[in-house]
Structures are given as C-alpha cells and as structure tokens.
Specification:
Layout: E1 5-8, E2 12-17, H1 34-41, E3 62-68, H2 71-83, E4 85-94, E5 101-110, E6 118-121, E7 131-142, E8 146-153, H3 160-167, E9 194-202, E10 208-212, H4 217-226
C-alpha cells in the first residue's frame, strides 16, 4: 500500500489515510502500519519520536493524519493538538437525530465492562483516568434509518466520537465495538462510516494551515445507495 501524501514541507507531512491500516502497532496488531510505511519512504523518521506521527485515527477510519519530520516539530504540533486545533469528521450514525445540531460534553474513561472501549460519564463523576471530552455535531442529511453528521472536536480523546455517539443512542454505523445489536447496515458498507475530513492547526512559523480530505469512494457509494 502506498501513502497518499496531500501536503509536504520542510517540517510536516499531511497524509490522507486509507481505511483498514493501523497507524501504529498496538497489542495484537499484525500487518504493516502507517508508521512502517513512513519509515520505509522516509528512513530518517526512525529518529523522530513515534516516527513523527502527531496523533492517531482508528484503523477503520479514513482521512487526515499529520506527521512531523523532526522532534522539534513533533513536540510543537503535539502542544497545538491539545489546545489550538480545529478537527472535523464526517460520520453516518444509526437512527434519526431530530435536532439540527447538538453538543455532547462528558468525561471519558475506560469501560469496566469491556477494557477495549471508552465509556462516557457525567461531568460531576470525576475520577482518575476520566478526562473531559466535547463533541459538537451538525446534521448534514437524514435518511430513512440513518443520519449523516459533521462532528467538530475541541478535545481529542481515544474513541471520542464513537463513544459519544453511542452514548446518545446514535452509534457510528458498522462500528464493531460500539454498535448496538441488530443494527441495520447499509448495502455495501464494509467498515465503520467515519472519516477525518478537516484539520486546521498552527504551524511552526506561527501561521495557521488548513487540510481537507474528501469522503472516499467506498463511503460516497454507500450514500448514493441510500438516496
């Protein structure tokens, strides 16, 4: 598999990640990762923390991924990631969301029932290991059984979108971990319908840079079939 590079300068690479490939090796992960492909193409990334990968997106999620070419940029972008970034995702979720927009604010922590999952807790139930997470959603289109939404994140917690949407009873469609039993799945959908579509972040030179990624063909086709 080749990396799809959509932007490159002296310090940063922006990738449009394909689905079905993990960003970094985790647990039982087999097969090549984005990190492996990066080091093959840019051997000097062996000397950069986490091979330069500033943040993660899930294996079955497609879309934007930022890579730093040196440790100074890596540390700078990681700081920006915590406080000075705009992130948007596109998702198809189960059920019809009635409101045109909404905000989900909870604490997120590891689920005691299933260690692979994150669980949403009310803000007043603070405890070690639980961190505040905010997700804003905007309805783009409603279908018979589903809602297409754009999600804006002001925090970047593990599985944030997936756990938050499941918490409001609208899980991301075909999400292996968070979907409900007997969920309807659109024809032709082979993975969770989640795509990292937009990033806006401050770069080392002090200027803000925007990156965009179109919905990939497999997800576009699913939407066409729903029309």
């Amino acid at each position: 598999m080749d990396l799809k590079i959509i932007y490159e300068d002296a310090n940063v690479i922006a990738l449009d990640k394909a689905p079905y490939i993990a960003v970094l090796k985790e647990g039982e992960e087999k097969g090549e990762t984005v990190a492996d492909l990066l080091v093959k193409q840019f051997p000097y990334l062996k000397n950069v923390e986490r091979n330069g990968i500033v943040h993660r997106i899930d294996k079955d999620t497609s879309g934007l991924l930022l890579v730093a070419k040196n440790n100074e940029t890596f540390e700078f972008l990681q700081e920006q990631w915590k406080k000075n970034i705009e992130k948007r995702y596109i998702a198809l979720v189960s059920g019809i969301i009635k409101e045109d927009r909404g905000k989900i604010e909870t604490l997120l922590g590891r689920s005691p029932q299933d260690r692979r999952k994150q669980k949403a807790y009310p803000l007043n139930e603070e405890k070690q290991g639980r961190r505040k997470a905010e997700t804003e959603y905007f309805v783009l289109k409603r279908f018979k059984y589903y809602t297409l939404v754009e999600l804006h994140l002001s925090t970047g917690r593990k599985h944030q979108i997936r756990a938050h949407m499941a918490n409001i009873q609208h899980p991301v469609v075909k999400d292996k971990l968070y979907s409900f039993k007997n969920e309807k799945v659109p024809e032709g959908l082979e993975r969770q319908f989640l795509h990292a579509s937009f990033l806006k972040i401050k770069m080392l030179n002090g200027k803000e840079k925007e990156f965009k990624s179109e919905l990939p063909e497999d997800l576009k086709k699913v939407l066409e079939n729903l029309e």
